[in-house]
Design goal:
heterodimer, A: 146 residues, alpha+beta, 4-stranded mixed sheet, 4-stranded antiparallel sheet, 3 helices, elongated, B: 81 residues, 5-stranded mixed sheet, 5 strands, 27% strand
């Protein structure tokens, strides 16, 4: 079965990704889902439009996963970033790390999402209820922001 | 030499285009190319001199020497996830 694409315009299918990352010896699986949200600081966001430098997303995802496999050789990963207009409450990114035990699963999943946040050539534009738009760049407030 | 320069997200919106070919002298660096793009494009002065860049799909420093046919990408601050 072909691996799920790493960049998609469709809704993210977490079950399909879980299937891609599963293995008979892998007893711990960690899932990170980034979801389009609004906060008091952001104002009335109704969607986020994601765009990407697609060719570089593919190569950078590959590098990040190669690094992660070097650190956790037994792990299997599945990753997918959605682009296009994503409504409030829907998933923009999914990272799945399946390892032998839970500790490595959490660590590996955390490693991949942090590297993705720092390196993946993806941009987002907030779409507000009144129809106005604003590029959201350089104001990610913390590593806990999705 | 000729370098294909690609613009994304806010930079593309500022310039009103996503791609431009620029002519540079041999041994020109990324910094030289960014200066050229800032000067030649509408809204180019709003692109930071030390913007993130990639050459041939690799994150790259400003002093990297370019070669004929390279693809240079000017990258606004990343915001994936």
């Amino acid at each position: 079965m072909a691996s799920p694409p790493r960049l998609t315009r469709e809704k993210i299918d977490v079950v399909e990704l879980l299937r891609a990352a599963s293995g008979p010896g892998l007893g711990g699986t960690s899932i990170f889902l980034g979801t389009v949200r609004r906060s008091e600081d952001d104002g009335p966001v109704m969607a986020i439009e994601y765009s990407a430098y697609s060719e570089m997303v593919e190569s950078e995802f590959e590098k990040i996963l190669t690094e992660a496999r070097d650190k956790w050789p037994d792990a299997r990963f599945a990753v997918q970033h959605r682009i296009g207009r994503i409504p409030l409450g829907e998933t923009s990114i999914a990272i799945i790390a399946a390892t032998l035990h839970r500790t490595e699963a959490f660590e590996a999943c955390r490693y991949v999402i942090e590297e993705v946040k720092a390196r993946l050539t993806v941009w987002k534009k907030e779409i507000f209820e009144d129809g106005s738009e604003d590029w959201r760049e350089g104001r990610e407030r913390s590593a806990d922001s999705s | 030499m000729k370098v294909r320069c690609r613009l994304f997200a806010r930079y593309a919106e500022l310039a009103g285009l996503e791609e431009v070919e620029i002519e540079l002298p041999g041994s020109a660096t990324v910094a030289d190319a960014v200066s050229r793009v800032r000067a030649m494009l509408r809204g180019g002065e709003l692109i930071p001199k030390h913007t993130l860049v990639a050459v041939n799909h690799e994150h790259s420093p400003m002093d990297q020497v370019l070669h004929d046919g390279d693809e240079l990408a000017l990258l606004p601050p990343l915001a994936g996830g």
